[in-house]
Design a protein that fits this description.
Strands 1, 2, 3, 4, 5 and 6 form a six-stranded antiparallel β-sheet that branches. Strand 5 (82-88) and strand 6 form a beta hairpin. The protein has helices at residues 7-16, 101-111, 119-139, 158-171, 176-187; strands spanning 18-27, 32-35, 45-56, 63-72, 82-88, 91-97. Helix content is 36%, strand content 26%. The model has no long low-confidence stretch (mean pLDDT 83).
């Protein structure tokens, strides 16, 4: 079916296919919209577009494929973007876009120039940097001649303050003039 791999091919590649990232060299501006399921639901519509890909496997030479692929209507990639693919090593024409979350995440990291195997290490470095920054901020009050910044005053809801004032006035704790003076302060008048 137009740009959509058969269920058999999809199963075959998910079981035995090879994962790689592919760079879109060229993609058609217009294609055919194909809706599966309820019409009017954006997520049920895919666009089948003629696409020219350069596939860059880790352990074999790169190759190019020109084929019609289906992309979600709201996530059609552009030339220069990276998409994850699954392909048959023996027949490069058997290729599909890999929409698994792991493959999508890996392709995003790759496009950003981040090695996915180093994510744990990068997260650890970020935590160490946060701890160092917190330690530096905590020690700033110890520097001679410097006073620590005053803690921020919590924001008080003016409506709540006015309600409290009204209750105090009704109970007799405030006179009308005291009530008016405090009300003016709260309202910034």
């Amino acid at each position: 079916m137009l740009g959509k791999p058969s269920k058999k091919l999809k199963k075959e590649l998910e079981a035995n296919g090879k994962r790689a990232n592919a760079t879109i060299i060229e993609i058609a501006e217009k294609g055919m919209a194909v809706t599966r399921g309820a019409e009017g639901v954006v997520s049920n519509t895919e666009i089948a577009l003629k696409t020219h890909l350069r596939v860059t496997p880790d352990d074999e030479p790169e190759f190019e494929v020109k084929k019609r692929f289906s992309f979600p209507q709201m996530a059609v990639p552009g030339a220069g973007q990276t998409v994850p693919v699954l392909y048959d090593q023996n027949d490069h024409d058997k290729i599909i876009v890999d929409y698994s979350p792991e493959a999508q995440q890996s392709a995003a990291f790759s496009a950003a120039g981040i090695d996915p195997s180093q994510i744990g290490q990068l997260m650890e470095q970020a935590q160490q940097m946060r701890a160092q920054a917190a330690g530096m901020q905590g020690g700033m009050g110890q520097v001679p001649g410097m006073t620590p910044p005053a803690p921020a005053q919590p924001q008080v809801d003016p409506v709540e303050q006015l309600e409290k004032l009204a209750k105090l006035k009704e109970s007799g704790a405030l006179t009308q003039s005291e009530f008016e003076a405090e009300k003016a302060k709260i309202l910034g008048q």
